[in-house]
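Late entry, guanosine-5'-triphosphate complex.
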Amino acid sequence: MKHAILVMGPAGCGKSTFCSTILTHCQSIGRSVHLVNLDPAAEHFEYKPSIDLRDLITLEDVVEELQYGPNGGLVYCLEYLVNNIEWLEEQIENFEDDYLIIDCPGQIELYTHFPIMKNIVATLTKCGYRTCGAYLLDSQFVQDVGKFFAGVMSAMSAMVQLEIPHINVLSKMDLLGDRAESYELERYFDPDPNLLLEDVNKESSPKMHSLNRALVQLIEEFNMVSFIPLNINDEDSVTLVLSHIDNAIQYGEDVEPKEPKDMEDVEDDDEMYDF
Ligand SMILES: Nc1nc2c(ncn2[C@@H]2O[C@H](COP(=O)(O)OP(=O)(O)OP(=O)(O)O)[C@@H](O)[C@H]2O)c(=O)[nH]1
Ligand SMILES: [Mg+2]
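Prediction complete; structure with ligand written out below:
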C-alpha cells in the first residue's frame, strides 16, 4: 500500500517547513519518504522535490505569458495540473511502497471552494494511495477566539470537501515560548464547544450570537475541532504528529516487519562465529 500526506493550510502557516521537518525526521529514523511540490510559485526547498509541479508549469511563466496576477495565476496553474492529470499519474507511479509528502500552495480558495484538491485526491486514490490531509494553522490562531473560529472554519471546509482522514496541526508552537504550556492554550487543542461559544460571544456583538451558536453547533456535529501542537524544535513533538498521521492512514499495518530480516542477519553473524 502506498501512502501520502497532503499538507494544506493558509499562506505562510509553515507547510513547507512542516514538510522538510517530517522529511528530516523520517530520514533520521530510516524511513523512505519523498517530497512532492504542488506549489507553482515555490522558490527554494531545503530538499529537492522528487516530483515538482514546476516541471509542468510555473507561476512565473503564466504571469508573464498570460498576464495573470499572482493569485489568478496560481489557480490557473493548478487547473492546468487537473486538466493534465496524467502527468501526475505518471509521476506518482514510480513510488511503489513509498510515502509522499505533498506540499501545497497556501491559497485558501484551493481548499474552500475550488474542486482542485478533490481532483488531486481522487487521482492519488486511483493510483492506490491512502491519503491523509494535514491542515496546518499557525499558533497565532489561538491568540484570540475570533481568529481561532476563522481558522477552524477553513480547516473544516477542507475536511468536508476532501473526505479523507484528516488531522489539524497547530504549527509554530516555538513562537509561543512558555505560553505554549499554559492552560489557556490547551483548551484550544481539544476545545469544549460551549466554552468556545462563551468566549466568542464575549467578543462579538449580541447580533452575532445566534450565528455563533449555529457555527459552534456545526463544529460540534463534525466533531473535528482538535489540534495537535507542533514544535519543530522538539523531536518528541514531531514524532507525535507523525504518529497521528500514520494512525489516520494505517501506515505500518501492512509494512513488512523489519525483524525477520534482522534476525537472519543475526543468524548469519552467529554462523560466522560458530566454531
Ligand atoms: N519560528 C517558527 N517559524 C516557522 C515555523 N514554520 C515556519 N516558520 C516560518 O514561517 C515562514 C513561512 O513558512 P513556510 O514553511 O514557508 O510556510 P508555507 O505555509 O509553506 O508558506 P506558503 O507556501 O507561502 O503558503 C517562514 O519564514 C518560516 O521560517 C515554525 O515552526 N517556527
Ligand atoms: Mg510553502
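The first helix runs from residue 15 to 28. Will revisit in the morning.
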